[in-house]
Design brief:
Number of strands of chain B: 0
Helix content of chain A: over 70%
Oligomer: heterodimer
Strand content of chain B: under 5%
Distance between the termini of chain B: 31 Å
Structural class of chain B: mainly alpha
Structural class of chain A: mainly alpha
Largest interface: A-B, 92 and 91 residues
Strand order of the largest sheet of chain A: 1-2
Number of strands of chain A: 2
Helix content of chain B: over 70%
Shape of chain B: globular
Radius of gyration of chain B: 22 Å
Strand content of chain A: under 5%
Distance between the termini of chain A: 14 Å
Order of helices and strands of chain B: HHHHHHHHHHH
Radius of gyration of chain A: 25 Å
Largest sheet of chain A: 2 strands, antiparallel
Chain lengths: 310, 260
């Protein structure tokens, strides 16, 4: 788009590129790629009785994925992540819509109110809920007054508490990309849909939601992947029946010391996250391409003109 | 106003209440004389004086601040260079570079923590402050690069060409044109890196050795053992106040430029 018209030669540009790229690329190769490869290699080594890494090679650690208890954890992790993603999207899409339709001054204020919890220390946000849900906490007293729970009961250590706190901590991850997409959405398309006879919900679901498709994909990925590997929330507000895969990895890595098994579980989880991210990127790229040929840009000549003028 | 707007307005109001009510209760409880915070038993600054006398917490806080102050410039420099490379050049090298920059954003934190733990042990680097520092720089690079990359997309590079046509050297262009115009974005990236470094628990927990507890790790252990819970309220209130200042600064820096 804005290719530099420098009279510099191609090799000189190539040298600048290397100097710009080398520091970050080198750092990430050493501290991100190599450690990830170490994990992958260790997942094929035999465990050592002292909790270290043996010298043999084995497929055995990966078979941990087939153990009945790990299968239960996997299914629960997938289910809880799906639930969290669904609730976050259901709440975040109306919020993104409302923010995008607000006056510019209000948008700034609302954005600030959404970003603030996003920047607040994660542990503090979990702690705030632990205090509220605790036997003497405000939420627990409210639930008791409404006869939802009995005397002396707590709202903690329950799968519902895990879902609640997961939604609380991940909702900003969903709102921010959705708002970024909704802000660029051309709301006159909705008027067009209404003029053509679509009901308000119909216009919302068949014009607005697909229109912010890229944002929905990004939000779903961020929330789903962040929830997949979470182990702190089940550990702090959940009971034993709320443990997720992350808890097993942390346990094997830090307390039981079966490093190869922890490595096999962590690698599997990471591969799942990478596959999901790659699928999303591919889908988004295809979205961009189809939109470029016969998408809303073509259907809306006014917007076309605008972008040419500016 | 359409009915849809009323619905979305209600959801937005409830979501904001959901976001902030727990934090407001937390701050209120930090002034509550009651130990468990279920009922209001009068105003007190007791928990704050307790906090000021808690050596463990103060030491952890000092250590956290030191790590964040050292990790921020490194991550900002590396992230800024990465953003420039990714924006200005399109090659196979940059495709690989982009994957390396973006992957840490989607991989579970526990993987990064665990892999760095094994890396620091395998290489003989050891655990502790420098390991925590290197780990923090690593995950901050991606966030800084993404923030600055977004700013570069709106940047008018014809200014660079103009400066070069007028005879400026590459260094003059960087110092006199690029940095002055891009510093709000760079500073916003630095603030993000600073906050992420102060907040990080999972990765730090894996790579911190004995005696190198950071504030989040300290809060975690106080929470686990249910030790001095009201002191955590006071500490949280102070951290929240710090966060508000940082967010306000960052928002002010990244506000959209006023149109003439």
């Amino acid at each position: 788009m804005e290719k530099s018209r420098n009279p510099r030669s191609a090799p000189a540009i190539r040298t600048t590129e290397w100097w710009l790229t080398l520091p970050s690329f080198g750092w990430l190769l050493v501290f991100f790629v190599i450690p990830a490869l170490i994990i992958l290699v260790i997942s094929f080594r035999t465990p050592d009785v002292t909790g270290g890494i043996g010298s043999g090679w084995t497929w055995g650690n990966w078979s941990a994925w087939l153990h009945a208890d790990v299968r239960v954890l996997t299914l629960r992790t997938l289910w809880v992540s799906a639930e969290t993603t669904a609730v976050c999207l259901a709440l975040a899409i109306p919020v993104a819509w409302f923010m995008a339709r607000c006056s510019v001054a209000w948008r700034g204020t609302l954005l600030l109110l959404v970003i603030l919890p996003f920047w607040t220390n994660f542990l503090i946000r979990v702690f705030a809920w632990k205090v509220l849900l605790n036997q003497d906490g405000l939420a627990a007293r409210l639930a008791r007054a409404l006869h939802i729970i009995g005397d002396g009961d707590t709202l903690l250590y329950h799968p519902g508490a895990v879902l609640l706190v997961l939604v609380y901590t991940h909702l900003p991850f969903a709102i921010l990309p959705l708002y970024a997409a909704a802000e660029k959405f051309d709301f006159s398309l909705l008027d067009a849909a209404r003029d053509l006879g679509a009901s308000a919900p119909r216009a919302f679901f068949s014009v607005f939601v697909p229109g912010i498709g890229a944002g929905v994909g990004a939000a779903a990925l961020m929330v789903f992947v962040a929830t997949l590997g979470n182990y702190l929330i089940p550990e702090i507000v959940g009971g034993h029946e709320s443990d997720m895969l992350g808890n097993r990895i942390a346990q094997r890595a830090l307390s039981d010391r079966n490093l190869p098994e922890a490595a096999a579980l962590a690698s599997g989880l990471a591969l799942a996250a990478v596959v999901l991210a790659a699928a999303l990127w591919k889908w988004q790229r295809r979205q961009v391409r189809t939109h470029a040929t016969n998408g809303p840009a073509e259907a809306n000549p006014a917007r076309h003109l605008q972008s040419e003028n500016s | 106003m359409t009915p849809r707007r009323t619905f979305s307005g209600t959801v937005t109001a409830l979501v904001l209440l959901f976001f902030h009510a727990p934090l407001i209760v937390l701050v209120a409880n930090s002034f509550n004389a009651s130990r468990f915070g279920g009922t209001w038993e009068g105003f007190t600054l007791h928990w704050y004086t307790d906090l000021a006398a808690n050596r463990e917490v103060l030491e952890a806080f000092g250590r956290t601040l030191k790590i964040a102050l050292l990790a921020t410039p490194a991550a900002t420099l590396l992230g800024t260079l990465a953003a420039f490379a990714l924006h200005r050049h399109h090659s196979r090298l940059q495709s690989a570079h982009l994957v390396c920059v973006q992957l840490p954003l989607v991989l579970p934190e526990i993987l990064m923590g665990f892999s760095l733990l094994l890396f620091f042990i395998a290489t003989g680097w050891g655990l502790g402050i420098t390991a925590i520092w290197a780990a923090h720089v690593t995950f901050c690079i991606s966030f800084v690069a993404m923030i600055i990359l977004a700013r570069l997309q709106d940047f008018d590079f014809t200014l660079v060409d103009a400066a070069r046509d007028l005879g400026a050297s590459a260094w003059q262009v960087a110092w006199r044109v690029l940095l002055p115009l891009l510093w709000p974005g760079i500073l916003a990236g630095a603030l993000m890196a600073f906050t992420l470094s102060i907040d990080d628990f999972v990765i730090t927990f894996f790579v911190s050795g004995p005696g190198t507890t950071t504030l989040p790790v300290q809060i975690y252990s106080m929470m686990k053992t249910s030790r001095s819970l009201p002191v955590i309220n006071a500490l949280s209130a102070l951290l929240l106040f710090g966060t508000i200042l940082l967010v306000a600064t960052s928002q002010w820096l990244t506000r959209p430029p006023r149109r003439p």
